[in-house]
Design brief:
Number of helices: 3
Protein name: TNFR-Cys domain-containing protein
Order of helices and strands: EEEEEEEEEEEEEEEEHHH
Keywords: Disulfide bond, Membrane, Transmembrane, Transmembrane helix
Pfam family, one: TNFR_c6
InterPro entries: TNFR/NGFR_Cys_rich_reg (IPR001368)
CATH topology of the largest domain: Tumor Necrosis Factor Receptor, subunit A, domain 2
GO biological process, one term: defense response to Gram-negative bacterium
Strand content: 25-35%
CATH class of the largest domain: Mainly Beta
Shape: rod-shaped
CATH superfamily of the largest domain: Tumor Necrosis Factor Receptor, subunit A, domain 2
CATH architecture of the largest domain: Ribbon
Length: 221
């Protein structure tokens, strides 16, 4: 296309590619890019350079560009385990981090997190082998034979639980006997003795389980 100007003609020829820090307009011309934090408001002409505008609040542009709209800032959703670590600016996106009880499943270039998941809870019959962190999920493993876990936290030797529950029920039953049936002094002595027996038995079985008990009688005396 040409336009007569006096006796000369100005030719505007679309180009195949632009130089670095230039962008190609819709009509195929090359214009200077806008800097970070800005986008194109009006393309350049033969008489003026590119007109740029600042990014609006809630948007950003982190690179030289020939775009007409800024990028929307990322939202850190607390309902999905994220919180704002660094606020969005005209030149940088929001940086999100992880709330307690969650781990990151998608990382960003700015050392932030874009996707989080709740820490897994170990099922009954399992224990926590490795607690969850902000970068990894909980690792569970099954209890060994002879051990059990009600809450999915720790495995306990099965016989300890059975005997302790039996002693507790026995102690509660005896301690609820009315004082009219037993001399008051004997009543309190009996309750204290049962409580002491429960504690000593628990210490004995726990140390036996870990093979660290050297003298059980010394512990219970």
């Amino acid at each position: 296309m040409c336009f007569p100007v006096g006796y000369a003609a100005v030719f505007i020829v679309p180009v195949l590619s632009c130089r670095p820090k230039e962008y190609k307009t819709n009509d195929g011309q090359c214009c200077p890019m806008c800097n970070q934090g800005r986008v194109v408001q009006r393309d350049c002409t033969a008489y003026s350079g590119t007109q740029c505008r600042l990014c609006d609040l809630g948007t950003f542009m982190n690179q030289p560009n020939g775009l007409y709209n800024c990028f929307p800032c990322t939202s850190c959703d607390t309902g999905h385990g994220l919180f704002v670590k660094q606020n969005c600016t005209a030149t940088t996106d929001t940086v999100c981090d992880i709330l307690n009880g969650y781990h990151c499943k998608g990382f960003t270039n700015s050392n932030g997190c874009s996707l989080a998941g709740k820490h897994s809870q170990c099922a009954a019959g399992q224990r926590i082998k490795e607690p969850g962190t902000s970068r990894s999920d909980t690792v569970c493993e099954d209890c060994q034979p002879g051990f059990f876990s009600k809450d999915g936290v720790n495995c306990t030797l099965l016989i300890i639980n059975v005997l302790m529950e039996s002693l507790i029920y026995l102690g509660l039953g005896l301690c609820h006997i009315t004082s009219s049936a037993i001399v008051p002094v004997l009543y309190y002595i009996l309750c204290v003795a049962i409580a002491t027996l429960c504690v000593c038995f628990l210490v004995f079985m726990t140390r036996s389980q870990n093979r660290a008990c050297l003298n059980v009688r010394a512990v219970c005396q």
